[in-house]
Amino acid sequence: MNALLELRAVTRRLTEHRGTFATALPGVILIRGDAPSAPTPVLYAPRVCIGIEGLKELAVGERLVTYGPGEELVASLTLPVTGRITVAPYTAFTMELDPVEIAEMALSVPPRESSDAGFISGPACPQLLDAVLRAVRMLENPEEIPTLGPLVRKEILFRVLNGPHGSMLRRIILKEGYVAQIARAVTWIREHYTERLHVDAVARRVGMSPTSFHRHFKAVTAMSPLQYQKQLRLQEARHLLLAEAIDVGTASSRVGYESPTQFTREFARAFGAPPRRDAERMRASMTAA
């Protein structure tokens, strides 16, 4: 049995129904979907995802990224995305990426040319699939995790950094070039997303001209700085409306909107329904699940 077929068999045993499953291996999550899904906005922190079966499509700003069986998805930055399962059944392996682990290993990995995109997919090398298979097997033998878990995490990270999609991670962590400057800008916007965004001031903060900053920010994130901030605001507002059952005006104010009318219009455009109706729909979906 090849690695991908065995990955499919083991993952199905570990995920008996659809959902997202945290595991005993730090930072590792297994995902299963039994049917195509509606587009779902989510914030992707740095991670590597390995498609096992099915197909997932992710919209990142103006960029559309897909990955399926035997393919890897590398998110180098925290980015708001909209994802949907297009082919089911769907299963995937996800490992969150720790900046400290990346920094420790990045110096030993030779640099190589790669895309400027902070969110990219492509074929996973056989060595990466083998390492992921060992990690998934370990979940059926949890007594191995304290000793072997850190080793297999390091191998997966090494394979990602040494592969065609790992150069962005290396450049961000080692603060190489404009990519690291954009990464600092993304962090600043994320930490101050409720405030009025003065793009030229953020460009100066990271040591770039406004023109260069706009161009490189879009190359890395597939969206403008203002679009990035808006997506953060809308996703946080959606979370507040669902988790705290607050009114629309309060939610819009807490995420930085001055006009509830503008908030409602942009929310409906992003999520397909006005805020209150979207929250009711989400609660009904969670109850049905």
From TrEMBL:
GO terms for molecular function: DNA-binding transcription factor activity; sequence-specific DNA binding. Keywords: DNA-binding, Transcription, Transcription regulation. It comes from the Bacteria. Residues 183-281 form the HTH araC/xylS-type domain. Signal peptide: none annotated. PROSITE patterns: HTH_ARAC_FAMILY_1, HTH_ARAC_FAMILY_2. The keyword Transcription regulation applies. This is AraC family transcriptional regulator CmrA.
